[in-house]
């Protein structure tokens, strides 16, 4: 199950979008995530916290890869992992392989789409052979999901995705 920074207000209530995150909000977000982990532990499930980019999600708190890593590492529980969305990392921060390496101990899922266009790998500027190799080399053998539009036929998009992550 996937979470975004907007859901990390007091008791999990939505946070209004804003330009600046106040220090107290970090503490509330951490407490909310602990509460979510308690529920997840009872249910035997794992949540992921996903990074988003501010261009498409203006004012989203705890949006960046760095913010998500900070929160997940601070909570430090097996019920909470990172959903590392490399499309959002590329737009928000760039340097996707370095960010992936930093997140690796905490990654529960990797999501991909190329940029610009948010279509399947191979339709944009991102170097998927290098990214796929780097993920494998850093020991990432977890799920990789494509969250993308098909540039043309959906079956071609799926094939491009499969090919990009078959080493
Ligand atoms: O809304 C988005 O852009 C997402 O990536 C949701 O997971």
Automatic annotation (TrEMBL):
Q: Which domain of life is it from?
A: Bacteria
Q: Which residues form the Xylose isomerase-like TIM barrel domain?
A: 25-159
MF terms in GO: hydroxypyruvate isomerase activity
Q: Which residues form the signal peptide?
A: none
Isomerase recorded as keyword = yes
Instruction: List UniProt keywords, sorted A-Z.
Output: Isomerase, Pyruvate
EC numbers listed for it are 5.3.1.22
Q: Does the keyword Isomerase apply?
A: yes
InterPro entries in the record: Sugar_Epim/Isomerase (IPR050417), Xyl_isomerase-like_sf (IPR036237), Xyl_isomerase-like_TIM-brl (IPR013022)
Q: Under which main EC class is this enzyme filed?
A: isomerase
Q: Which Pfam families match?
A: AP_endonuc_2 (PF01261)
Coiled-coil stretches noted in the UniProt entry, renumbered to this chain? none
Q: What is this protein called?
A: Hydroxypyruvate isomerase
Q: Which organism is it from?
A: Phaeobacter italicus
Give the organism's phylogenetic lineage: Bacteria, Pseudomonadati, Pseudomonadota, Alphaproteobacteria, Rhodobacterales
Identify the gene encoding this protein. Answer: hyi
